[in-house]
Amino acid sequence: MKIFTQHPASVGENYLQHMGSALSFALPLLGAFLACLVHALLPFLFAKTGSRIITRLHDRMVTNRHRHAQQAAEANPAAQPATIEQTQATR
C-alpha cells in the first residue's frame, strides 16, 4: 500500500486529500481541453478560456507547492528531498 501513500505524504496529504487535490486540477483541465477543442473548430468561441484556466491552475499549483513544502518540512524534515548541493556533495 506504500505505493499509494508515498507521494501524497511527500506533499503533506493523505491519499484522499491528494485525490481531491488532483481532481481539482483534472476537472478544470478537462474544461480547458474542451474549450480549446471547440476553439480549434470555431475560433470565434472560447478565444481565451483555455489559457485563462491554465494560468489560474498554474498560479494555484505554485502557491500550494510552496505551502505544502513548508508544512511537510515542519512535520518531517528527514522526509524532504535532497537539495542540489546535498546531492552533489555525495558524488
Question: Total helix count?
Answer: 4
**Number of DSSP-assigned strands:** 0
Spans with pLDDT under 50 lasting ≥5 residues?
A: none
Mean pLDDT: 85
Largest sheet: none
Structural class: mainly alpha
Shape: elongated
Radius of gyration: 18 Å
Order of helices and strands: HHHH
Helix content: over 70%
User: How much of the sequence is in beta strands?
Assistant: under 5%
N-end to C-end Cα span: 32 Å
- Number of discrete domains: 1
What does the model show?
There is one protein chain. With 91 residues, the protein is mainly α. The chain has one domain. The protein has 4 helices and no strands. It has helices at residues 2-10, 15-41, 49-75, 84-89. The model has no long low-confidence stretch (mean pLDDT 85).
Provide a quick synopsis of the model:
The chain is mostly helical.
Features:
mainly alpha
Secondary-structure blueprint:
Elements: H1 2-10, H2 15-41, H3 49-75, H4 84-89
Helix pairs in contact: 2-3
